[in-house]
Design a protein that fits this description.
Number of helices: 6
CATH architecture of the largest domain: Orthogonal Bundle
Structural class: mainly alpha
Strand content: 5-15%
CATH class of the largest domain: Mainly Alpha
Number of domains: 2
Number of strands: 3
Order of helices and strands: HHEHHEEHH
Strand order of the largest sheet: 1-3-2
Distance between the termini: 37 Å
CATH superfamily of the largest domain: Winged helix-like DNA-binding domain superfamily/Winged helix DNA-binding domain
CATH topology of the largest domain: Arc Repressor Mutant, subunit A
Shape: globular
Helix content: 55-70%
Length: 158
């Protein structure tokens, strides 16, 4: 049973929409996880870490990776250790800070990530293929309003 199945018609429409969004996200993510495992023998967290490094060619400090991925440093360290052992990322010393190091994709890691990212993009396009282009644009615009409102609420509470 998905999360959406828990609500009834007497619940507020906003709650029903929230649960539909969660359900859709979970369904798409489950498919992406499955395809990453089947086609590339990797996991979504590994893909996500490589995606962050792909956006930062000079590499990132571990604490920055952790912040960007919104996970603990221990999680990032474990994934990084695996990727270093496979020759997909490398660690570099940080000048002036003997306790820190940067992590960046190796040439092999960049090639492998590019292949995965191309497939990933198509999986996401396929996930929304049941919608017309106009529907996708409308949904994107409307979710942008939700995002802006949520960000405004967070800024006001700080």
């Amino acid at each position: 049973m998905d999360m959406e199945a828990r609500v009834h018609s007497e619940h507020p429409e906003a709650l029903r929409l929230w649960l539909r969004l969660l359900t859709c996200t979970q369904l798409v993510e489950k498919e992406v996880r499955s395809r990453l495992r089947e086609q590339f023998d990797t996991t979504l967290p590994r893909f996500d870490l490589m995606a962050q490094l792909e956006r930062a060619p000079d590499g990132l400090k571990m604490n920055e990776l952790s912040r960007r991925m919104m996970v603990t440093g221990g999680n990032v360290t474990g994934i990084t250790d695996q990727l270093v052992a496979e020759g997909l990322v490398e660690r570099m010393d940080v000048e002036g800070d003997r306790r820190a190091y940067r992590v960046r994709l190796t040439a092999r890691g960049r090639r492998q990530f590019a292949e995965m990212a191309q497939e990933h993009e198509q999986w996401i396009v396929d996930a929304f293929s049941g919608l017309a282009e106009r529907d996708i644009a409308t949904l994107h615009r409307l979710l942008g309003k939700v995002k802006a409102h949520a960000q405004q609420g967070q800024a006001e509470s700080v």
